[in-house]
Specification:
single chain; 155 residues; alpha+beta; Arc Repressor Mutant, subunit A; Alpha-Beta Plaits; 4-stranded antiparallel sheet; 5 helices; ArsR-like_HTH; DNA-binding
Length: 155
């Protein structure tokens, strides 16, 4: 279902991105609607797939996943079968938080979360480099997180 977002829908989405647990009554107040129309709009946004799901955002360090790395991956070849094989493999690894096929220098970029550098090294050696389509992996380790957001910019 395709829907056009009006300013109120966008306002609802901005608020829900900040606080997915906000009550409908409080959401309605914040966006200037009464509760019933607000709830109808939220349900339409959910049914249209604009709101994909609600999640809890965890502090990685407090749950033993304090290291984030970015792995650049090169494939042996760039045909559809290799890409599919790679995609199926990385989807099985919970350590891979995000994976993007890219243009440019490498074929894919992954955001990987593990407990520490040794855990990442084990993951790379035991899993990532053993995917048959992978030619090589180069890893970037960030020194500090300056910004971490899950809110899409809605203007």
């Amino acid at each position: 279902m395709l829907i056009t977002l009006d300013p109120i829908d966008r306002h609802i989405l901005r608020v829900l991105q900040r606080d997915g647990r906000i009550s409908n009554v409080d959401l309605a107040k914040e966006v200037g609607l009464s509760p019933s129309p607000c709830l109808r709009r939220v349900r339409l946004l959910e049914e249209a797939g604009i709101i994909d799901r609600y999640v809890a955002v965890l502090d990685p360090a407090k749950v033993g996943a304090g290291l984030t790395v970015f792995a650049r991956v090169w494939f042996k070849t760039q045909d559809a079968e290799v890409t599919l094989q790679f995609a199926q493999a990385v989807r099985r690894f919970p350590e891979v938080m995000e994976c993007y096929l890219t243009t440019g220098e490498c074929d894919a970029v992954l955001r990987i979360v593990t407990a520490d550098l040794h855990s990442y090294w084990r993951f790379q050696a035991d899993h990532l480099t053993r995917i048959p389509s992978v030619l090589s992996v180069k890893t970037d380790v960030p020194m500090e997180t300056l910004k971490r957001s899950f809110e899409l910019p809605l203007r």
